[in-house]
Prior knowledge:
Blueprint: H1 2-26, H2 43-47, H3 52-85, H4 91-98, H5 106-120, H6 126-150, H7 154-162, H8 167-196, H9 199-204, H10 211-218, H11 225-257
Helix pairs in contact: 1-11, 3-6, 3-8, 3-10, 6-8, 7-8, 8-11
Amino acid sequence: MRGLRIYTLLYLAFLYLPIVLLPIFAFNDSTVIAFPLAGFTTQWFTELADIPALHAAVLTSLKIALVTAAVSTLLGICAARAAARYRFPAKGGIMGLVMLPLVLPEIIVAVSLLVVFLQLGLQLSALTVILGHVLICTPFCIAILNGAFQSLDNALEEAAVDLGETGWGAFRLVILPLVMPGIVASMLIAFTISMDEFIIAFFLSGTEATLPVYLWGQLRFPQRLPAVMALGTILVAASVILLTIAELARRRGVRKRGDTDTGGFL
């Protein structure tokens, strides 16, 4: 047991120590990314406001992430609702195929989508990135929303229908408010994944670079690395904030349904 704890600590250190270095060098008063530090400065953060290409990449990523979050969550609601409420032939196999992108290497998904889009004659653009991001984000949304829908008592909806409400009305007025925290968490997770995703965006973005693709391009210029570190610090902080809000929304939903909290999203 002690060996497992040591392994866990070493794994977490290997995973997160590089992220800790981001803010250290982002506030370092030198263009050289190395120790010892030259001093404290906020120059690299102020320089971010003077880079038009960065602003265009941020705007592109925001548009893609917002659309991806909305579409992925809508598809997740439909799939989770169907899996929790109905029985249909090959249900397990169909849900397994829908969740398959969770375990497939992203490089394989990206190359496959690139081949399909080129064969269909689609021009690489923000639309193709959205389609790719929806494919990988939808399983995460389903995983989050499955717990919300499966914990509901079907008698609630049946009682609403018995009292004269339509099926859609019962879903809108009874079921939807109960799973709303899960929907919020799903949208925030999908938004965060889309904003941070690189591989699919790299293959499918065309001339409309997303923020991760723009950052990758800047790594070729050593003089720009401090600004990249500053931007990376902002992205990490924003991701942590969004994930924290999503987790709080998930826990609120668990308490609202009267269930026992058994862990995080997945």
